[in-house]
Amino acid sequence: MAKCAWAVLGLASVLAPVGAQAQVAPGASGLEAGGLAPPGSGPADPAVPSPRPEQDLVAAEEKDSGRGLEVVWLDGEIGYQLVGLQTFHDGDLVHEGLVETRQGGLMFGGGFGLRLVFLTFGPRFRFGTFAEWKHWTLDAEVGLRIPFGRLEPYAVVAGGYASVGDVPGHDGLDDGDVKIRGGNLRVGVGADIYLSQAFTLGGVVTGDALFLTRPAVRVPDAAGDGAVVYAEDGSGVGAAFAATAVARLHF
After folding, report:
1. How far apart are CA 77 and CA 109, in angstroms?
2. Is residue 83 situated within a structural domain?
3. Among 198, 210, 214, which residue's Cα sits nearest to residue 238?
4. Do residues 141 and 248 make contact, with C-beta atoms less than 8 angstroms apart?
5. What is the pLDDT along the chain (251 residues), one digit of tens a residue?
6. Per-residue DSSP letters for the chain?
7. How big is the CA angle at 88 (ends 86 and 90), to the nearest 5 degrees?
8. Which residue, 118, 89, 81, 86, is CA-closest to 100?
9. Rounded to an integer, what distance in angstroms lies between the CA atom of residue 181 and that of residue 215?
10. I need a labelling partner for 175 at 20 to 30 A (CA). Which of 30, 160, 214, 231 fits?
11. Are 147 and 202 in contact (CB under 8 A)?
């Protein structure tokens, strides 16, 4: 009998740990021993928001670029412009012996318009003043802008009205008698740097093709030989190149 009692006590001591392990919650792993648990094994904390990669990416991009949503832009520019009145075609637009057909000098201008994501639209005015005559344009401009953080390269195309004024008269004609009008087409590339959400500094280089005409002028009988060329209509296909600094506001 004593031997049987000792056998029963030994069997009970072996089965006791097995029963304790069976009471562990289902799904618990052995790594939880000593207070350790594998990552993600615990219940989710409702106070911690779930990650949103898309929104975080947009917020990081806006913070890095230093800009916000843009709808309207306004800018001013100043720089150097070189203009040739008869670069590609000489149709007696002016008398080359009396008037310098190619000149360079200060040019300034400005523009404003709307922005739709990567595209900009709006009018632009430019005015160049040179030694013998002046040149100005009024164009409709379209731009394609590609953001790279704070740097924004862009390309523009434009077209519109062109004028050359204050052409010297010479040989019996008064200044302003020779009136030159026409149109222009422009292409250019530039870049802006965002110094704040609403202000950029940058530069642009452009090239224009000028399609110019001149109506005939009544030449006085006593006018010199140099003025005779203006008695008939004239034309010319010229070119203009400009490099300007641009300050721009974005709203």
Report:
1. 5
2. yes
3. 210
4. no
5. 444 444 444 545 544 454 444 444 444 444 444 444 555 555 555 555 555 666 665 455 555 555 678 999 999 999 999 999 999 999 999 888 788 999 999 999 999 999 999 999 999 999 999 999 999 999 999 999 999 999 999 999 999 999 999 988 776 777 778 899 999 999 999 999 999 999 999 999 999 999 999 999 887 766 666 678 888 899 999 999 999 999 999 99
6. -HHHHHHHHHHHHHHHHHHHHHTSPTT--GGGGGG---TT-SPP-TTSPPP-HHHHHHHHHHHHHT-----EEEEEEEEEEEEEEEEEEEEBSS-TTTS-SEEEEEEEEEEEEEEETTEEEEEEEEEEE-SS-EEEEEEEEEEEE--BTTEEEEEEEEEEEEEEE----BTTBPTT-S-EEEEEEEEEEEEEEESSSSEEEEEEEEEEEEEEEE---PPPTT--GGGGGGGS-EEEEEEEEEEEEEEEEE-
7. 45
8. 86
9. 9
10. 160
11. no
Distance CA 15, CA 239 (A): 102
> Residue 208 sits in a domain of what CATH number?
2.40.160.20
Q: Total structural domains in the chain?
A: 1
Residue type, 177: D
The token duo for 239 is: 């070119």
> 122 lies in a domain?
yes
Q: What is the pTM of this model?
A: 0.73
Residue tagged 């010319």 (tokens): 236
Amino acid occupying residue 86: Q
Domain encompassing residue 122: 69-250
Q: How many residues does the chain have?
A: 251
Please check whether residue 179 lies inside any domain of the structure.
yes
